[in-house]
Amino acid sequence: MFTIYSFAFCYWYKGCAPEAQYKKPDSEHLSITTAAASCPLLPPKECTMEKLLPGVLLLVFLSEGMTHSDLGGKAFIFPEESNTAYVSLIPRLKKPLKNFTLCLKAFTDLSRSYSLFSYSTKSRDNELLLFVSKVGEYMLHVGNAAVTFKVPPSPYAPVHLCASWESASGIAELWVNGKPMGRKGLQKGYYVKQEASIILGQEQDSFGGSFDAKQSFVGEIWDVSLWDRVVPLRDMCASCYNGNVLSWQALTYKDKGYVVVKPKLWA
Length: 267
Description:
Blueprint: H1 2-13, H2 32-38, H3 49-63, E1 67-69, E2 74-78, E3 86-90, E4 99-107, E5 114-121, E6 128-134, E7 137-142, E8 145-150, E9 159-166, E10 171-176, E11 179-185, E12 196-200, E13 219-227, E14 251-256, E15 260-263
Antiparallel strand pairs: 1-14, 2-13, 2-15, 3-12, 3-14, 4-9, 4-13, 5-6, 5-12, 6-7, 7-8, 9-10, 10-11
Helix pairs in contact: 1-2, 1-3
């Protein structure tokens, strides 16, 4: 773990001193102070805590068992129904969302209800939730309010979903496999709160927990991205999954229970 921690810290720390070369400290037990001492310092006015903070946070995430990875070409597999298997996602950007675009791909043969993406805060369990209530009905929740989009039934196959919402108009939009499913309105003027627990595989009935196996996801999820703006979905390309809040190509996550990462079967 020394190599990961020291590299992570100095990667960010060298943002304060781009010309600096990392030197491994004598001790194999790395602390924040030790790591800082290993990277040459610039004067305090140039090397601010604001610049160091992302590196410190990355160390904390890694020390708590988080993984930071480019998952391009891979998928999370949830092999069986449970209330214990899930993936917790750590956003790259923490801020209130007055707009958002969420995209993901999934495959399941479930005929019951299930959660695709659960973003919960301490005040609202369904702060942002993409949920399938039954075959052919997708529900988008914002601030505990919800709208339902009816989707023509199709054979069991991978689905490509993109949902967007903007605060100014309250307009929510859903695209399925590159086709628009209409626009509806909810929570005009609302802001999605920032202190969130973001989970794949389970629907949160409380912040970070209260899972129900009968709402769990069974199948595969991949190419998850979240932006803090409305992305023109008509122009969304199949490979553009580098969201500034969540990016599949630079994802920090922690998996719990029976979750497997494997090469994806579909594009």
